[in-house]
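Take a protein:
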Amino acid sequence: MARIQPASAHYDLMRILILGGGTVGSSVAEMLCGQQHEVTLVEKDPDLVAALDDRLEANVLRGSASQASAIFQAMPIDLVLALTGVDEVNILAASMAKAMGARRVAARVYTDVFFDQSSFDYQDHFRIDRLLSVERFTAMELVRHIREPGAMLIDNFARGELEMEDLFITKDSPVTDKPLMEMRLPSEVRIAAINRGGNVSIATAQDRIVPGDRITLLGKREDVEKVKKLFHTQSFKPQTVVIGGCGETGFHLALILQNRGYKVIVLENDRDRCDAVMNALRKSTVICHDARKRIHLEEDHVGEADVFIACTPEDEDNILACVEAASIGTKNIMAVVNRPDYANIIDRLGITCSVSSRNVVAKQVQAMMNTGAVISRNSQIFGRGIDVIELEVLEGAPITGDMLRNVPLPAKSIIGAVIRSGSAQVPTADFQFRAGDIAIVLAQSDTVSELLKAFQSG
């Protein structure tokens, strides 16, 4: 398991304030210092402040993230990352930083209620650009590593309201050899990209789909599910996934997989926790067993599962559970392992894939290292020269001057979604942007500079 390495830079050097010097905050600070950014880190524990001051090439200060003075002394700031262990402190700190003039702010949160927009939209109300959930991001990273023949890429966009999913096109599909413009798909769904023989390109109205292609659909999950039926894609036997540990990471992983048709078995040795998750995981089988014990793994037929994933809070427990699963015949074994010094033993123990929560958070932070209208930019989802970009429409931007159909944009770009007043939608040709809207755009990397001109202030 490699240490966090700087990604290819498409950003300028920035002034960054990190609030909280725990495991996540210190690892992110180390990464950003290594990229030569100007980093200030605020931590209230005096012993930790002394240790971090010796270890990091950053301005390490003692202070409380919930006090405005800790933020004020670091201003002006391009990016504020509130990464303490207390949700409410992070939300308050990020909101204060935004009010003080920080360009972008992000807050780490643990509790699900802060993501639930049905009763109150915390992110919009407190003007926070991004809520960071280590557990949710780790679960999604694990999903990406599961080999699913029919949908090798799955991701969430627009604050979880929209999803992107890959489909494999078979020879009996009724939509092959037709221009996309003739397919008459619902306006709520986009064909975003086409993967043909390993070459991925942004889909255009003139493109035709042929057997063997993988197409990427973007839209709300229920709409994507309806559109999938039009393609008569090849059906596959659902995989059986056994999850060892049902903490927050295991819970979110089970929730994602059960909603995508996997057969999910969750092993959790805490009876109270089992009772707590039963209602939400009704499509899964929750068993009060210890994933570290071979007798329990044998009793639950884990050796016959397609995938075993250990995601308890402790690295050592996860490694032990994986060793036991391998010993009874499980072929595809994954684990959450955060300590970098365990990297050398992972392969030798038969663990096919390990995911580090620290690295997952680092990727999310890396995506926010941008200036101007760009909120985040991810070049890793598709690879091969395609970026997924989150853009804020600035005051006076050319894209606000007319309906979308009349705005000149690069041919190899597609606006997949827009967030307005906290709600996501797929824009139609008659849609007109306003300042403050957030757009989710897929674009060829070499067209991004031209694309940005439409979103920047005139």
User: Anything to note?
Assistant: Residues 1-10, 148-154 have pLDDT under 50 and may be disordered. Residues 15-132 form a domain with the Rossmann fold fold (CATH 3.40.50.720). The radius of gyration is 23 Å. The chain has four domains: 15-132, 146-231, 240-361, 367-452.
